[in-house]
Amino acid sequence: MSRPIIAILRGLQPSEAEAVGRAVIDAGIDRIEVPLNSPDPLTSIGLLAEAFGDRSLIGAGTVLTPEQVEAVSSVGGKLIVSPNYDADVIGRTVALNMQSWPGIYTPTEALAALKAGATGLKLFPGVMAGPSGLAALRPVLPTGALVFAVGGAGPENFGQWIKAGADGFGIGSALYKLGMQVAEIADRAAKIVAAYDEAAK
């Protein structure tokens, strides 16, 4: 069963990419982004796409330019997540048949991103908007628009966010930090999945 959770593996090293990817996917999180400010991110994304691309959505975060979109596509990535709304980035992502998740914070950004062809919206920083901010934003968005809360959303408050209208989540440091052992990542992933399943009932 697939959950609407994106694992944000910031700082991932290529040498650990496959082991960490397997731990996360086996726990039930089958969407992974490697932020482009990680060490040698394209190598990690390529390794993950080759190993798990047939059963997972693999791609990059912190994508800021159309050229970066093309680079991610060239190594097999199919997911583009950005901290901001940029019509050129969204347009290139859509043209390459990849999923586009731009960061938005205001109704203006949200509606512009959807008009540009975004697959879904990343409410970021979620900690600043809070569930109440999302609840206020939700009524002006088109029916069916997907919103993932990122930053300030996690196992301890999934329920509040879902009630406010969150369709899913991006989870970073609650799941993975540089230097963590694979067993700990697997344990954290399992707890995140269990908390999500409970909150989504």
Describe the structure.
It contains eight helices and nine strands. By secondary structure, it is of the alpha/beta class. It has a single domain, classed as Alpha-Beta Barrel (TIM Barrel), CATH 3.20.20. It has a nine-stranded parallel beta sheet. Helix 2 links the parallel strand 2 and strand 3. Helix 1 runs parallel beside helix 8 and helix 3 runs parallel beside helix 4.
**Which superfamily, in CATH terms, is the homologous superfamily?**
Aldolase class I
- Portion in beta strands: 15-25%
In helices, the fraction of residues equals 40-55%
Which strand order spans the largest sheet, edge to edge or round the barrel?
Answer: 5-4-3-2-1-9-8-7-6
Highest-level CATH class: Alpha Beta
- Could you say how many structural domains there are in total? 1
Counting DSSP H or I runs of 4 or more residues, the number of helices is 8
- How far apart, in Å, are the first and last alpha carbons? 14 Å
> How does the helix and strand content classify structurally?
alpha/beta
Task: Tell me how many strands there are.
Answer: 9
Which whole number gives the mean pLDDT?
A: 98
